[in-house]
Amino acid sequence: MSRHEGGDAPALDAYWLGVIEFLARHSVAPSRTLAPREFGPYLEHSIPYELAADTDVSGLDCAVFHKGMLARLPARFLWSVLRRLLPSYANAVFVVYCREIFEPLVSAEHIKAFLAKVPDEAEAPPSSPPPLAVYAGQDRIICRDPDFRKIIIPSRERALLGALTGGRNLVAELTERLAPVLAGARRIVDYGAGIGLLALAAKEKAAHDCMVAAIEDDAVRIRCLNANIDLAGLYWRVEVMTERPQWLGDIGRDAGASAGTVWLAQNGPSFDLAVPCDVLHVDLDFAREDGIVGIAAFLDENGCPPVVLSRSLAGRAGEGPGADEATVVTSFQSLGYGAEVHDIRAGLGTLTVLRSTCRNASI
């Protein structure tokens, strides 16, 4: 079964045509729309029900439900869609769920009738995650983790690919390990953001209005990072900086680099670099020994927030010597860090969480 392709169009009644006119009226992309296969000639490249089990729910903009065809859809998939999208159009035969409500519903009775036909989620048979789909192209690979989440990784990162194709849920693991640090955080500096795993974890645990400054200078990783935050709907929360900015002193490989170029997936608020952050993440494979002094100065100026040190979390192993963790921790001792050091195995790398006991510590 492939996606809907154009062909001879069967005659459709007013209910079917009403759906087509609604989607056209609001320019809903067929390629991100789930619909019965009978819509194929009218919604070219839309996703038929038969591919639902292999479809990433987070990538859908629209789902067209035929009240008499719900048996074609896995119950758990159906409930996942209902939780993510909003009822936007309904008639006697169809209910259409979209990311936003484009126009007032004529009647809620059609919605109620549809929901009455939806099978109880508790009665749905347990289902294992669908087969992981992996596609290569443009130095990137598109993977899907057990939570139906699409994750874009550089094609050269064989360790990341092996973990994802092996069923590892890297975002969930990172979220669980860092929950006490990320809880309630409103401003996070992610130095060595890689493909954006920390930003994805922050979506689940940080404050709803949390902003993340994601600093990354590798061209392929930047493309993956941009794609991942866009897929996760984080374009308004994550600001991607493609150079090491001056305000971090001499951190990193390019000491004294000019102020970072800022890229946003879409227009959004800027990350005010003058305001203290709540959490600082430093990828030790991204930083360098000559940048430790700059890191310490930044922490001192920002009230000594919690620090997360990571190693090889973004698959940087083998790219050259990074900062030595023991040296970093020793350098932070004058700021009161080191009282709580926790080595945590997460995903592909290690995490060390440092908290300061200095009197001006923010947490």
Give an overview in words:
With 363 residues, this protein is α/β, with parallel strands linked by helices. The protein is built from nine helices and 16 strands. The protein has helices spanning 14-25, 75-84, 109-117, 158-165, 170-182, 197-205, 219-231, 292-301, 325-332; strands spanning 33-35, 47-48, 62-66, 86-90, 94-98, 135-137, 140-144, 150-154, 187-191, 211-215, 238-241, 262-263, 279-283, 307-311, 337-346, 349-356. It has an eight-stranded mixed beta sheet, sandwiched between helices. The protein has a five-stranded mixed beta sheet with strand order 2-1-3-5-4. Strands 6-7-8 form a three-stranded antiparallel beta sheet. β9 (187-191), α6 and β10 form a beta-alpha-beta unit. Mean pLDDT is 76; it is low at 1-9, 125-131, 249-269 and 359-363.
Topology:
Blueprint: H1 14-25, E1 33-35, E2 47-48, E3 62-66, H2 75-84, E4 86-90, E5 94-98, H3 109-117, E6 135-137, E7 140-144, E8 150-154, H4 158-165, H5 170-182, E9 187-191, H6 197-205, E10 211-215, H7 219-231, E11 238-241, E12 262-263, E13 279-283, H8 292-301, E14 307-311, H9 325-332, E15 337-346, E16 349-356
Parallel strand pairs: 1-2, 1-3, 9-10, 9-13, 10-11, 13-14
Antiparallel strand pairs: 3-5, 4-5, 6-7, 7-8, 11-12, 14-16, 15-16
